[in-house]
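Look over this record as teaching material.
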Amino acid sequence: MRLFEKKLSENRIYDGRIIRLHVDDVLLENGNTSKREVIEHPGGVSVAVLTESDEILFVRQFRYPYGKAVLELPAGKLEPGEDPFEAVKREQKEETGTTGTDYVYLGDIYPSPGYTSEIIRLWLCRLGSTGSSSPDDDEFLEIEKIEIGEALKMVMSGKIKDAKTQIGILKTAAFLNRL
């Protein structure tokens, strides 16, 4: 098998502020055709900010699709043409009021490759300075610090459900040789 699909046509359904949706007709490698529903997303960034005592900074915010507040690592979407490293520093400052030092790139994740083009780039850093947060006008956050061992337990017990946060915690722990 060659593992490919060829786009035959694209039907644009929705162009929003953050996402675009289209339904494509594709040719499969066996000669049959199928449809693919695709959400285009500009991508995002996320950071695990570690304090001197190996606590991780989290934000808790209401997530409308789930109808509840969700505990997450600081994160946000890329602006058009924005450098991901600059974006992660921007999002960290906006959401937590902090700056970092000793940033380590932890890699990219595909949060849901079956239907979205989104790529989230992950970082780890040490807490540098602390100041005031300045979230977006439609963003309301509570900041929490959780020791990395406790955060690992929360991932494994299912208390932390957000995928980028789970992966960020696990990669941070591996980087610090805690796994």
